[in-house]
Amino acid sequence: MSKKIIGAVAGLAAASLLVAACGGSTASDATSAAANVASSAAAIASSAAAVASSAVAAASSAAGSAASAAGSAAAAGGKACVILPDAASSARWETADRPFLEEAFKAAGLEYDIQNANGDKAKFATIADGMIAGGCTVMAVVNLDSPSAAAVIQKADAAGIPVIDYDRLTLGGGAKYYVSFDNVAVGTAIGDGLVKCLGDAGTKTGNVALLNGSPTDNNATLFKQGYEKVLKDAGYTITADQAVPDWDNTKAGTIFEQMYTKNNGDFVAVAAANDGLGGAAISVLDRNGQAGKIFVSGQDATDEGLQRVLLGTQCVTVYKAVKKEAQAAAALMVALANGDTAAADALATGKTADSTSGKDVPSVLLTPQPIFPDNVKDVIADGFTTVDKVCSTAELKAACAKYGVQ
Known about the structure:
The protein is α/β, with parallel strands linked by helices. The protein has 16 helices and 13 strands. It is globular and about 55 Å long.
């Protein structure tokens, strides 16, 4: 629309100058006319720019994009601080969340400090103390457990620093906002994926093992709530059910091997709460000649998880668009750094129940996507990973070609 208006301005200017030149005016008259035309053109152009600006603003508002909200707050004041939990439970924290958060903060012109506690609660507290003393004006945390993170949130609150729970809700912590995915829906996607694989194989009944996430992570509770209900409702029997401390993949391998031995390998599926746990279970199955015969789930769409899905040893993973999650958190942090709680409230339109405090936490909740071989390409297209990382061997290259991953 703005190009048409600018074109009209140019045409008006040219026509007016031609009239001035051909109408027998003096040089002074022509000069005066040209000046008048230029002034009119400038006024029209200014009006056109205002119209275009209003149109862009309206489109941005209609889209309701958290990314736009973060990007529009250029040169934001204050300092954003983020504490990530570890690099072992999932590769996502360092390979996805960190770079996406950095990208969003840079786009907003907001100073930032992102550190990783590497699974150490004492280090988590030390990092937080340093951030509070170092001038943070807004903080986001991914807890290792609720009690340790709650202590950090309370310290930050006492210092006047608003805190956002990122990805994991800190029960009883009192964070001002929560940014994550609908975690019951994540669990439901895991369960639905397994039921689909079992149904496609003609397996309508059978025993299922649950390999759950850390008992100290509220998300793990919600994931289990989702997939356990789906599996039971579909007629499958839960014969083994255990949580894995700290999402530790090595412990997961040991736990699942004990499950497998105790049940004589009599499982039709394993509901593993993420790709790391799923990979641990698949390693045990592989040693027993059962990889690809007993269906296994996962979550996070890690490169390894996607590879196993393509090769048929993992039934499903669940893709959570971390870039959107990071952008939503950054948008909230920019708003809070600028003291604009109204803007933050406008972004956090959801509610999440804190079962410890009995309160609802204003939330941004995103929607997960189950990933099977035929839509691995969606994860690539979204920029979460690359073809080179996923299609890294001759066997994987063949699978990628088969499923259109390119």
